[in-house]
Amino acid sequence: MLHLSPTPATLWIGIIALILIGTISWLSWKRSPHRGRTAVLEILRMLSALAVVILLWQPEWLTVIHPDTKPKIAILWDDSKSMTTIDAPVPAALDDQAKIVSRADWVKKALNSELWKPLEANGANELLALPFSTPNPENAALSGTNLEEPLSEVLEKQSNLRAVVLLSDGDYNLGQPPVAAAQKLRLRSVPVFPIPVGSQVRLPDLDLLSVSAPSYGIVGENVQIPFTIRSSLDRQVRTIVRLRDDTGREHTKDIIIPPNSETYESILWRLEKEGSSVLELSIPVADGELIAANNSRKFTIAGRPEKIRVLVIESTPRWEYRFLRNALSRDPGVELACLLFHPALGPGGGHDYIDKFPESLEELSKYDVIFIGDVGVAKDQLTKEQCALIRGLVENQASGVVFLPGSKGNQFSLLDTELSDLMPVILDEDHRNGMAESVASPLTLTSEGRTSLLTMLGDNEEENPAIWRRLPGFYWHAPVIKAKGGSEVLAVHGNRRGKFGPVPLLVTKPAGNGKVLFMGIDSAWRWRRGVEDLYHYRFWGQVARWMSYQRNMASGQRVRVFFTPERPEPGATVTINANAFDANGAPLDKGTVAIDLTAPDGRTQRIELQKNDTAWGAFSGRFKVDLPGTWKLRATASVAEDKPLETTLLAQGVVIEKTGQPARPEVLEELARVSRGRVIQPDQLADLIKEITALPEPRPLESRIPLWSHWATLVAIIVLLGIFWTGRKLNGAF
Predict the structure, then answer these.
(1) pLDDT one-digit tens code per residue, 336-381
(2) Which CATH superfamily is domain 72-202+660-699 in?
(3) So what's the architecture of 206-303 in CATH?
(4) How far apart are CA 697 and CA 132, in angstroms?
(5) How far apart are CA 111 and CA 91, in angstroms?
(6) CATH number of the structural domain 554-651
(7) How far apart are CA 422 and CA 507, in angstroms?
C-alpha cells in the first residue's frame, strides 16, 4: 500500500497548490472553444500537479510480510582463537564443581546445558546455534574475530528473528565496529543479550612478543638479536633467555623482567657456519604463569663469508691511521685500499695502497666503507667534486662513511662541501685543532651505546660496560658542540660537558640509503695496551661490517638489492632499493630493473623499479606484504646477466588473534544498550530465560520502497509532463 509522510507545512502547501492548479484548469476548460480536447489536457495537468505534490509528501510503497514460521532465537557463539584462553569460572548453573576452564569450554558447557529447554517448550521458539570467526586452518595467523558480520548476517537471513544471544569475550579485531550491526537490529526490534565470557584482567603470563633478528650475519662474527617480552605478572621475575640452533648449540643470558611491563633486550649469537640456520629463542615458564605456548619463537638467519671493500683516506701517517690500517689489513673479511696523501712527501705506496682517488664511478662504486681521516679540501688532498662523489656513494649505494678527525683540523674544510650534511655533529669553529687533555679521559657509553653492536667489545651485554671502563683513555678529542638532529650518540666524553650536556664523541646517523659514523678521538689505538689486538681489532671489524650490512644484503653480478624493513609484518609496506651496473661494472645509466615477487602462497607479481635522477644506477620501488612467510625476490636488469639475483625476504607472522588477552565486556555492553537488550552475567543465566520470554512476538517484516527518490517516479513525471506539453502544442494547432 501507499504510505505518505507529510509534515504539516508540506501538507498545507500541497493542498493549496492543488486548489490553485484546479481552479486554473477549470477556468481554462471553461474558456476553451474545444472543451473535449482541453478537458484531456487539463486532466493531464492535474495529474502532473498531483504527482509532484504527492512526492512532496514523501510517498513510500509499504509491503507487510507476515512470517509463517516460529519465532527464532539465534545463539551466536565465538569460536575464535582468543576463546582458548583459560580464565572462565564455571557457574553453579552449569557445573556443581567450581573450576576455571577455557572460554571455549565454558561456551560448550553452556550450549550443552538444559538452560535453553524452556525457550523451546511447546514449540514457542526455534533455537539456532551458530558459531562465528572459526580460524582458517590454512592461514590461522591472519584469522581474527569479526563481531559485526555474524550479527548482520543473521538479521539478513532470518525473517522471524525474536532475539540474539551472543556468547563471546567481546574481543574483535576485524571488520566494522559491532555497534553498526546493533543499530540494524534495533530498527527490527531484535534485542541482543550478550553473555561475557572470560576475565577482565590479563592472565599471569610472560609473552615473548617479538624477535627482530637480522636476515644475515658474517660467519665467525657475533650478531645482535633484539627481542621484546611482555609481563602480566604482578612480581619481578629473574629468568634465563635461551637461544638455541638446530644442532643443539645454545647461548644464554640472565635478565630481569619488571612486573606488568614490556622489556626490550637483546642477545648475541656467533654464526659458525654458512647457509641458513633455524634458531629458537625461549624463556622458561615462570611460577604462576598460565600460558606456556607464547614463551618461544623460531626464526631463520643466514651465515655468509663476507669480503668487505674498505677505502681509508688520510693525510699523514698518524698513530691512529697506522693501527687502523693494520687492523683492517689483517681482517680476513676485509679487502683494504689506502690512500695516503702525505703532502710533504707525496702519495704513500706499497701493499694495499692506491696512488690517487678513484677517478670513475665504476672504481668508486666497489667500496662498501670509506674512512676519512684528518683530510680536507686542499692541494694534494680531496677536491669538492670528490666529496660530492663520496656523498653520492653513501646516499645512493648504501655505502658507509667514517669521519676520523685529527689535530690538524683538516676536516673543517669539508664543511664547505657536500659532505657537510653527512657530518652527524656540529663542530666548534673557534677550536679547529681540537681540545687537548692533560690527563687521560674515558669514553662513557650512553644507553644506546650499551646495546649497540658497534660498541660490543665483550661476548655478552653484562661484561661490556666493565670492558669500556677499563679501556685506556684519550688525550685529544674533536671540538664537538652537539650532535645533529636524527643522529644517535653512542659514547660521550667521560669528564667534559658543554652547554648542551656531555660532549658526544661517538655518533652515528643514517644518510640516504647509507650510514655515517663520527669518531671524535684519535686514541683508539691505545686500547691495545695490555691486551694487544683484542678490543682494537674487534671494534674496527664491527664498524666495517655494521656500515656495509645493508649494502651487501643481496649482491649479484649486475644488481645489488637491499630492502627495509628487513623482517616486515603482514600489512607493512616494504621499500626495495637496487643498484644496477652495466657490463663494464659502471653504474647503469640507461636501463631498467625489475623485481619478480613470489608470495608464500605462490602468487607472483612484477615490480618495475623507478630510477632516481642521479648517475649512481639507483632504483627503488615498493610493495605491500599481505602474508607471513618467505617471499622470494628475483631481480633482473636490462643488461647482460649470467644469472638473475635471487634472494628471500622473511615476513614475520603476526598473530592477529591472541590468547591471554583480557575480555572486553564494554564492547558487549554497548551492543546491548544500542539494541535495547541486556548484558547477562555468567552467574545470572536464569535471568536470560525470563528476559527472552517477556519479549513480544516479532513484528511483521516491512518492506518500504521510497517512491519519492525512485528513478521510475522521475521518469513517469517527465513522460507525463512531456505528453502535456505536446498536447498543448497540438491543441493550439487545431
Answers:
(1) 999 999 887 778 888 889 989 998 888 898 999 999 999 999 988 9
(2) von Willebrand factor, type A domain (3.40.50.410)
(3) Sandwich (2.60)
(4) 26
(5) 14
(6) 2.60.40.1930
(7) 12
